[in-house]
Design a protein that fits this description.
Blueprint lengths: L1 E9 L9 H7 L4 E5 L7 H14 L2 E5 L17 H21 L4 E4 L3 H9 L1 H14 L4 E5 L3 H8 L4 E6 L23 H13 L2 E3 L5 E3 L4 E4 L6 H14 L2 E3 L4
């Protein structure tokens, strides 16, 4: 039987947070990535998300980003490796503390948005984040784009890694995600998203926008929680995985 982790970004709101969609998504996914206050989320939302994750039995991950509330962490910011280490260390430590306050254990770290994309292509950025992960807890799993510097730099530090692929994003021929600035970056069709997920799991390939099939390693599948079709995609993907005898579970 195949096993796959299905992860989703969550807690990306502020103040009087409406938890309905996140609650429904937690019934499907096996792990979540919680915003740590630098692109979204605040102390209350982080606590509420962690408590809900404990109740639902899903693995909890930190989702650190550039300090960019106005841009939702999706604007590229030039920072030194030391600065990146510091902001990652701060965010990971904050969520780890909240988890431990309620008897839970932080499971993984997955960078967000522009920080993720920069680290995928820049070994210094990837290494700085990985160093922060290791400094907080060497046992944390480092989630990163398949075949990118996020994976290779973390492996150099002897961190356990999880190669991530995306259900709702298109790919370039070099294995990178199509930039959100381009019109075909997002997948809006549920059937297309499901088909891409099955291809990535079963064949370990994805069809790029050029039509070329490229190889990748799929250990965890991401669905963006802020996407307009997030719950619809998650339900359809979850059902199709069950039909194909692919179990959904967090990475051990």
């Amino acid at each position: 039987m195949f096993y796959i982790d299905l992860n989703c970004d969550m807690g990306e709101s502020f103040g009087a947070w409406k938890m309905g969609c996140d609650q429904a998504l937690m019934n499907i996914v096996s792990s979540i990535n919680v915003a740590c206050g630098f692109h979204a989320g605040d102390a209350s939302v982080m606590r509420e998300t962690v408590q809900m994750a404990i109740e639902k039995g899903v693995a909890i991950g930190a989702h650190p980003s550039f300090p960019d509330l106005q841009g939702f962490g999706r604007r590229d910011i030039k920072m030194s490796p030391q600065e990146i280490f510091d902001v990652a260390l701060y965010q990971i430590s904050s969520l780890k503390g909240i988890c431990e306050a309620f008897g839970a254990k932080l499971h993984h770290v997955k960078p967000h948005g522009a920080l993720y994309n920069q680290a995928a292509k820049n070994p210094e950025t990837a290494s700085a984040i990985a160093e922060a992960v290791k400094a907080v807890d060497h046992d944390l799993i480092f989630y990163g784009l398949s075949n990118s510097f996020l994976i290779s730099e973390a492996a150099k530090l002897d961190l356990q890694t999880a190669s991530e692929v995306f259900a709702d994003r298109t790919y370039q021929t070099d294995g990178s995600l199509t930039p959100r600035s381009e019109p075909n970056a997002l997948i809006h069709d549920t059937e297309k998203a499901v088909k891409q997920v099955l291809q990535m799991i079963m064949k370990q390939t994805v069809t790029a926008v050029s039509g070329e099939n490229i190889s990748l390693k799929a250990e965890t599948i991401c669905i963006h929680g802020d996407g307009e079709n997030a719950l619809k995609f998650a339900a359809a993907i979850g059902q199709k995985l069950i039909e194909n005898k692919i179990a959904i579970r967090a990475i051990q």
